[in-house]
């Protein structure tokens, strides 16, 4: 591939290179210490210096670089799609956290391996690239390391910014450094954005409009959460025909609002059951007391109990069972959003066939929620009163809940279609398989 970059490095980039060389020992000490504390073997710790612990596979290699757990797991569906479209492809995922490495190891698609990424220093990046020689580099969301980008592009690796997402704070910061932002974005042959607003932001930062395209939201197409069918059947049978709503991933300071809404809903729906699944199940004792103080009856899942006809709140204080609750009930309030916490993944609800209620504090998924609300797949609530009204409306008029669920399914279908186009665009950037003629010449 020819070098498409025409933008010259800036003084700020040169200063960054110099500073990274000077600070390399300190950076290494910090990241190595974190990995060792997690019990990562020493050989794998040295991957951060660019020393590979696995051989480079034969054939074309696609390298995905992601920040942490969510971004790492979000690329797995795309890897499956690419692998089906081009069976000769091999894949490498780099991510910096031990947690992401552990989770990825359990879910690696065929022909895929994981490594920790090199520190963003000249020597570490050079070792990494000399060993792996990727045929395509894909940087997920907003994980932009200057030397990694520049040196990979200089080595002839076509680069893609995938699922591009930038917070308003990041946009404002980069806009103040417009020349450097333009230089870094110029390293990418293709930038695939989650939505139109991100494209506008990237253009404002200096991105070449000709290299910008709308892409799918990878998190919308991640694998559904696991569901134990025996447990699902057991709980469903215990609940029977009672109406249910779910408040999931709630945080401290939110449950009071949820319980107040539930008390109000019981006036018109006296047999209504609230399934409360806190983000941190170790708060079970605290929440049990809070529920009792609110004058409501409860049973705790952590004690292997099932809801009875007299149970008003089923406290799901366990780990790894959220997929069961989403499959049980399509009406879900997603916590972490009534306060400025950042919110949680709405697509996990939608993949189970549900519709979402959210507060205004889900800034980590702000663009997604804005689009979901616009198309009618989600609603925003701000208080116990608005939460009561929203849940009550979906309970009283079930056809409106069905409509929201249909809109959610339509959104996911559009993301799937868009991913097919993404796969085509990525394959076009790569050299052809060995033995096949290069039609681009």
Query: Tell me, what's the shape?
Result: elongated
Average pLDDT, to the nearest integer?
92
Major pleated sheet: 7 strands, parallel
Estimate percent helicity.
Answer: 40-55%
- Total of helices: 18
Radius of gyration: 24 Å
- Which runs of at least 5 residues are low in confidence (pLDDT < 50)? none
Structural class: alpha/beta
Q: How many beta strands in the DSSP annotation?
A: 14
Give a brief outline of the structure.
Helix content is 46%, strand content 14%. By secondary structure, the chain is an alpha/beta fold.
Write a structural description:
With 441 residues, the protein is α/β, with parallel strands linked by helices. The chain has 18 helices and 14 strands. The strands form 2 sheets. The protein has a 7-stranded parallel sheet with strand order 3-2-1-4-5-6-7, sandwiched between helices.
Q: What features would you highlight for this structure?
A:
46% helix, 441 residues, 7-stranded parallel sheet, alpha/beta, single chain
Q: Which secondary structure elements does this structure contain, and how are they paired or packed?
A:
Elements: H1 11-37, H2 42-45, E1 61-65, H3 69-74, H4 76-85, E2 90-94, H5 98-107, E3 112-115, H6 122-132, E4 136-140, H7 146-154, E5 159-164, H8 168-175, H9 178-185, E6 190-193, H10 196-205, E7 212-214, H11 229-239, E8 244-250, H12 255-268, E9 273-278, H13 284-293, E10 298-300, E11 313-315, H14 322-328, E12 331-334, H15 347-351, E13 355-358, H16 366-375, E14 378-380, H17 384-396, H18 398-429
Parallel strand pairs: 1-2, 1-4, 2-3, 4-5, 5-6, 6-7, 8-9, 8-12, 9-11, 10-11, 12-13, 13-14
Helix pairs in contact: 4-18, 6-7, 11-14, 12-17, 17-18
């Amino acid at each position: 591939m020819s070098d498409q970059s025409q933008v010259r490095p800036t003084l700020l980039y040169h200063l960054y290179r110099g500073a990274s060389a000077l600070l390399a020992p300190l950076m290494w000490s910090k990241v190595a210490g974190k990995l060792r504390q997690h019990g990562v073997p020493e050989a794998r710790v040295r991957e951060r210096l660019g020393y590979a612990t696995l051989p480079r596979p034969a054939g074309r290699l696609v390298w995905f670089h992601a920040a942490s757990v969510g971004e790492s797991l979000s690329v797995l569906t795309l890897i499956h799609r690419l692998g089906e479209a081009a069976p000769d492809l091999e894949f490498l995922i780099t991510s910096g956290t031990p947690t992401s490495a552990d989770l990825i190891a359990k879910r690696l698609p065929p022909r895929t391996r994981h490594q920790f990424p090199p520190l963003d220093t000249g020597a570490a990046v050079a070792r990494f690239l000399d060993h792996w020689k990727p045929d395509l580099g894909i940087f997920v969301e907003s994980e932009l390391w200057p030397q990694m980008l520049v040196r990979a592009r200089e080595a002839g690796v076509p680069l893609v910014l995938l699922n591009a997402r930038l917070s308003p704070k990041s946009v404002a910061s980069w806009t103040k450094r417009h020349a450097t932002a333009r230089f870094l974005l110029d390293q990418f042959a293709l930038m695939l954005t989650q939505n139109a607003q991100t494209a506008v932001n990237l253009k404002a930062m200096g991105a070449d409009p000709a290299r910008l395209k709308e892409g799918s939201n990878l998190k919308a197409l991640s694998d559904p959460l696991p569901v134990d069918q025996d447990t699902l059947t057991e709980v469903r049978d215990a609940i029977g025909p009672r109406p249910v709503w779910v408040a999931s991933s709630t945080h401290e300071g939110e449950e009071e609002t949820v319980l107040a809404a539930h008390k109000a809903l019981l006036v018109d729906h006296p047999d209504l059951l609230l399934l409360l699944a806190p983000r941190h199940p170790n708060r079970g004792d605290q929440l049990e007391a809070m529920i009792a103080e609110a004058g409501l009856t409860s049973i705790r899942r952590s004690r292997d109990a099932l809801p009875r006809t007299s149970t008003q709140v089923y406290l799901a204080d366990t780990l790894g069972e959220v997929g069961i609750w989403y499959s049980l009930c399509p009406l879900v309030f997603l916590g972490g959003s009534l306060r400025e916490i950042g919110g949680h993944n709405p697509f996990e609800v939608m993949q189970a066939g549900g519709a979402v209620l959210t507060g205004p504090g889900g800034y980590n998924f702000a663009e997604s929620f804005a689009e979901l609300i616009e198309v009618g797949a989600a609603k925003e609530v701000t208080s116990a009163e608005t939460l009561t009204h929203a849940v009550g409306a979906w309970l009283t008029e079930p056809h409106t809940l069905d409509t929201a669920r249909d809109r959610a399914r339509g959104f996911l279908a559009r993301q799937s279609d868009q991913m097919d186009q993404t796969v085509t665009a990525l394959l076009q950037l790569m050299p052809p398989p060995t033995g096949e003629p290069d039609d681009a010449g």
